[in-house]
Amino acid sequence: MTQRLQTVGIVGKYGSPNLTRTVTSLVEYLEAGGLNILLDEGSASVLKGQRTRVVSREQLGQSCDLVVVVGGDGTFLDAARSLAASPVALLGVNLGRLGFMVDVSPESMAQVLDEVLSGNYQLDERFLLEAAVLRGEEPIQSGFALNDVVVTKRDVARMIDFDTHIDGRFISNHRADGLIVATPTGSTAYALSSGGPVMHPRLDAVALVPICPHTLSDRPIIVDSDSVVEVVLSPLNNNPAQATWDGQFSVALENGDRIRVQRTSFRLKLIHPPDYDYFTILRSKLHWGRNRHGEP
Predict the structure, then answer these.
(1) Which three-class secondary structure state does DSSP give residue 105?
(2) What's the mean per-residue pLDDT of the chain?
(3) Structural domains in the chain?
(4) What integer is the mean pLDDT of 122-138?
(5) CB contact burial 187-200 (16+ within 10 A = b; e otherwise)
(6) Which of these, 27, 45, 266, 270, is most buried using a 10 Å CB contact count?
(7) What is the pLDDT of residue 294?
(8) Catalytic annotation, residues
(9) Which helix (H) or strand (E) holds 169?
(10) Greater confidence, 23 or 295?
C-alpha cells in the first residue's frame, strides 16, 4: 500500500442508527478527494439515492486499495473473515462500545484519513484461525476466525466432556463449560473474561483457555501458532455441545466429533493511525493505571 490509494471500499454495521450519518460523511469526504468508492450491500441500503457502486465482499477485496469498516468489533470481525484472504487492508471506524480493533472515532475520521491517504499510517498484520468440524473423516463445517474458535455447552448449568490434542499428542481430558482457542487478537475478548492471558498481537501463539473447568488445575496454556489443536468431544459426554467461530456462527456437535484448529496461511492487513499504540488501547479499554477516582 505504498502507492496512492485510488479505490476505497466501505462496510457498515447493519441496522446501526449512526451508520447513515457516518457513512454519508465518509462518502462525501472520499468523493471530494477524487477517489473511487465501492459499497457492500449492507452499507448501500442506508445510502439510497447515492450513485455509488455496490459490490460483493469478494469484489471489495479484489478491487479496493483500502476498506473502511464502520461499526463495532463485531462488524469488524465479520468483515475480516470475508476479506482476510484478499490483499486489501482494513481500517476501522468505531460505532460500537468497546472497539479494540476499530480504533478511529467518527469525529477524527477525516483527520486520520488525511494521514492514511498521504501514506502516514501503521500497517499491522494478524493471523486468523481455520477450524473444521470432522464427523468421522467427513468435514461438516469449517470457517475462519480472527478472535477465537470455541467449543462450548449448549445448555445452561451443564458441563461437557472433551479431550485436547496438540500436533497429534494427547494433552488432557476436560470437564468444563468449554474451551476457547484464541489468537493474540482474540486474547482480549472471550478468552480474557475466562481468565486467559493478554497476548501482544505480534506474538505467533495461540491460547487454549478452559471455560469454568471442574478441576481448578485445568489452566490456560499458550502454544506455538504452528500447532494443530484438536478438540474431541468425548463418547461419554452427556450434554449438548456446539462449536462457534468468533461467536458469530456455530454448528451443533455430536459425541466423537473432532474440531481441528490451525493457523491460516494468510494474514489480515490492518491500517492504524500514525500515533497508534497497543498499550494505549489496553489502558483505555481495560482502565489500567487509573487511581481510585478513575483518573489516569
Answers:
(1) coil
(2) 91
(3) 7-121+273-286 (3.40.50.10330), 128-265 (2.60.200.30)
(4) 96
(5) bbbbbbebebeebe
(6) 270
(7) 57
(8) 73
(9) strand 169-176
(10) 23
